[in-house]
Automatic annotation (TrEMBL):
Name under which the protein is recorded: Uncharacterized protein
Domain Root UVB sensitive protein C-terminal: 78-220
Provenance organism: Octactis speculum
Lineage of the organism: Eukaryota, Sar, Stramenopiles, Ochrophyta, Dictyochophyceae
Main location: membrane
Entry superkingdom: Eukaryota
């Protein structure tokens, strides 16, 4: 009798393990099927991953040839780059933060004046985060549009593509100075190329009136910023 009971208990344990194994396998299959369905879509709106692909395609386009970047081209790249998606979510996306309060990148009145002068043609300000200079923060001005969000994000990614992580022997001040220098240099480039980029995207069928870049709704204006401490 005891042996039969022990056998029944053992069989029950094997059954539970089998059910959990089946549940895990079906869950993974479900997630994989969902992912395949999503990447098969040719979406006409830009998120961060698709915006990164657009920037890369634009950077490697043949000089002098017409540039048209279509959702089909980007969708093919998305399907081939899914393995790096989790790394992007955990690390790369944190390096560009959109829609931050002014105090995240600016702590003095002089630094505010410098940023306002530098970005006088844009509806955003861009600078290294005061708390974590390896990341870039974007402060949007009142009236910023989805196109401004896209330009700011592409600008920040362009800066990061030219920057290396600071060595342990580097002090924070030299690194921050080099980042600000890169921001100024790439600002001239993004100003020169933005109309071409937007034209290439619109010709390809992208909807630039809606972007999904993870920006907050916070906007900056001199009248409402409350910069009494600056």
């Amino acid at each position: 009798g005891g042996g039969d009971a022990g056998g029944a208990a053992g069989g029950g344990g094997d059954g539970v393990k089998w059910m959990w194994g089946l549940f895990l396998a079906l869950t993974l299959l479900h997630v994989y099927a969902n992912w395949r369905g999503v990447v098969a879509l040719q979406l006409h709106t830009l998120n961060r991953h698709r915006a990164d692909i657009v920037l890369d395609l634009f950077a490697h386009a043949s000089e002098g040839s017409p540039i048209i970047i279509t959702p089909e081209n980007v969708a093919r790249r998305e399907q081939n780059e899914w393995r790096g998606l989790f790394q992007r979510l955990l690390t790369e996306n944190r390096r560009v933060q959109l829609g931050l309060p002014l105090m995240s990148i600016c702590d003095t009145r002089q630094s505010l004046r410098d940023l306002e002068s530098q970005f006088n043609e844009e509806r955003y300000l861009l600078g290294p985060l005061l708390a974590y200079p390896e990341s870039l923060g974007v402060v949007f001005k009142q009236g910023a549009t989805p196109r401004d969000q896209l330009q700011a994000y592409l600008h920040a990614r362009l800066v990061l593509s030219q920057r290396r992580s600071p060595r342990s022997t580097d002090g924070p001040a030299p690194y921050i100075a080099s980042v600000k220098s890169s921001i100024a240099f790439t600002l001239q480039r993004i100003r020169a190329d933005r109309n071409l980029i937007f034209c290439a995207l619109e010709s390809g069928g992208w909807n630039l009136d809606r972007v999904f870049l993870g920006s907050s709704a916070w906007r900056f204006s001199l009248q409402t910023s409350g910069l009494k401490e600056l």
